[in-house]
Amino acid sequence: MSAQQPEPAIVSSPGFPFVDSVIADQLYAQETFEQQLRELHTQERPFVGVVEVVVDASHRLYLCIVQGELHAATRWWNGAWSSLTIRRFFQLLHAAYGARIHVWRADPILIKSLLVVAQKAPSLHTTSAVVKLDGLLQHLAQMQRDALLVVHEAAGLTLCYFLNGTPVFLESRNPAWREANDDNQGRLQRIVKETAAESVDLSLYEDVNIHPAQDRDLLGDRWPERVIDFFLAPRFALVLATEGGQEARVVLKGSQFTVGRGSDNDLVLSHPSVSRSHLLIRFEQGGHLARDLESRNGTLLNGRPMTSAPLTGGESLRVGEVALRFIREDEGIAIDEAPDEVGETTLIRITPKPSGYQNTGLLGWFDVIGGKLTGMRIELTRTKMFIGRTKGDVIIDDTKISREHGSIEWTPEGFLYIDLGSTNGSFVNQLPVTSQLLKANDVLRLGEAELQLHVNDRKEPG
User: Fold this and answer.
1) Residue range 164-181, pLDDT digits in tens
2) Sign of the CA dihedral 251, 255, 261, 264?
3) Residue 203 host element (H or E)
4) In b/e form, how buried is each residue of 357-376, taking b as 16+ CB within 10 angstroms?
5) Are 426 and 233 within 8 A, CB to CB?
6) Nearest Cα to Cα of residue 140 among 126, 129, 117, 124
7) Which residues is 206 bridged to in the sheet?
8) Stated pTM of the model
9) What stretches of 152-274 show up as alpha helix (H) in DSSP?
10) ω before 167 within 30° of 0 (cis)?
11) Tens of pLDDT along 356-401?
């Protein structure tokens, strides 16, 4: 009788302390993984965890899922980290023949720690022979700041997250430290004692402000049947003319996108010729299909009446008397030279950027001059940002603000604000708007919040 072959070891390199396995060492197959993602999305208790894709010994992909929703993605390749859009994650996954899949249930702070390490540079990287670990802990306690301390061992990483100087989370690949019955402070002291006689690498991250993937909300509230195909397919946008002869692009989100006069549509057109529910664009079987919703004045496709027709890009639509164009999202826009990496700027950039952008990353800012957040400053650090009550890059807790209220985007002509079909509307200098180019010192009112725009016009040093 031949000897029994050992089971393959589960690898979670580059050393993150993932321990609660949901799926272990599974060969990637799109159909199977599609179904697993849907199950994670629809669990009665919303799933929080990480998908780890082992491409090879030096290449791994990570997809963070928070409350059942795709949140952020990152890549570890030849010892270096880079952030990914969700779309880029699936592109790399789809090309990774023979990749192995692990799905780990994880504490939200563990997910945040992964993203901090992936997105940020440490403020201090040293060894315990140079900077004593107990001295570093005393420094953090005195500073009373949020920080992430990483202890590097041969077994993997030990992560300790500090909230106002107090350790609130500690997880380790070292079984002796992970299974200790002490509280976090006691476990830290155990680590100090056990590493006193040897030199270990230490990394301290004092910037723990992470950002989600910039296309995380493209799925909208309704998942398509095949989420991977959705992200692999070309992305499309509707283009409409705005006041002053400018054009506004609205990227299609979710598997269903509606156009109409009613405030519950994805694109709200206030023209009286537009019906309350006028047009539906649905993503299905890898493409887009437009359907007129029995509107009063009808829809024209390339000048001809339409009830239902496929869209492939380049079509003109007339919704009532409003002219739209259906185009690929990247049409006429400069593509980033490093498409698999996303930092504090978007993957697709509108050029030119304002002066000072490369040095500061600061396009402009809002000073909040009205509402309960008066006195706060909101920095505009990406070429497109979303504003909402519960969803977006800028969250404003105001019951009169919609869940996803509006977007603000840098264009060559300045900042373009678009209302995303909010219930209570958007106002610029007290006038209602659906889309508007903003000038310096304009006041944007959303609910009770009044936001005054300032543009960063600092010149780059010579």
Assistant:
1) 888 888 888 877 776 666
2) negative
3) strand 201-205
4) beeeebbbbbbbeebebeee
5) no
6) 124
7) none
8) 0.63
9) 175-178, 184-195, 227-232
10) no
11) 333 335 788 888 888 877 777 787 877 788 888 877 778 787 888 8
